[in-house]
Amino acid sequence: MTEHSINLDQQTADEHYMQIALALAQEAAAAGEVPVGAIIVKDGVVIGRGGNSPIDTHDPTAHAEIAALRDAAKNLGNYRLVGCSLYVTLEPCAMCTGAIQHARIARLVYGANDPKTGACGSVVNLMAEPKLNHHTEVFSGELAKECGAMLSEFFKQRRLKK
Fold first, then answer.
1. What are the pLDDT digits (tens) for 26-58?
2. Which one of the listed residues 65, 91, 129, 142 is annotated catalytic?
3. Residue 84 annotated as binding?
């Protein structure tokens, strides 16, 4: 599913795309999954979407980023996503960071930091590892309050149910 191209300055575009990722995170939360959403954009068009679904799919790799990468690769007909930007509501883990690098994503924009498993600077910074052959440009903190609040509320509700 794609959207019409939009021509916005980068900050406005980043906010717009993160809002789409937040909507996917909300869908994941409604399904009982940790609320993380991700989209991939190429030339102003959303070409990949994903929400967390490891619980429902019984698949530990079913993170939002992986789902969005798979969707985008299928839509492009290529596993290399050169020139694409990935927007995700939570800092990617090591698995997702590796997949992002293998896909050759040019730009990563994420919302909330992940102090437990974040692999873009919070715990480790795989994106800055000089020995790796691809380096994605990383921008953090886009709609961080909104992204973090959604995660905090989800885990608060989960603790109340126990």
1. 999 999 999 999 999 999 999 999 999 999 999
2. 65
3. no
